[in-house]
Amino acid sequence: MNKLIIAATLVAFATTATAQTVRMGTEGAYPPYNFINDNGEVDGFERDLGDMLCEIAGLDCVWVINDWDSIIPNLVSGNYDTIIAGMSITNERDEVIDFTQEYYPPDASAFVGLAGTSNDVKMSGIIAAQTNTIQASYIANSSATLVEFATADETIAAVRNGEADAVLADWGLLSDIVNESGGELAVVGDRVMIGGGVGMGIRESDNDLRDAFNAAIDQMKADGSLNALIAKWFDGLEAGY
Amino acid sequence: MEMCSDPSTLEGLNWWLCYLGTAKHQAFYLSFGTVLLLLALTAPVVMVLGFSGAMARRSGFPPLRWIGQLYTNLVRGVPDIIFFLFVPIAMDQGIEYIRHKIKCPDVTDPIRQGSDFVVCTAAKMPLGNSPQWMHEAYGFSLALIAFAIVFGAFAANTLHGAMNAVPKDQLETGSAFGMSERQVFWRIQVKQMWIYALPGLSNLWMILIKATPLLFLLGVEDIVYWARELGGSKTSRYTYPHPDWRLYYFAFLLVFYLFMTWASEKVLTRITKRLSHGQAISGAET
Question: Is B2 inside a domain boundary?
Answer without folding.
Answer: no
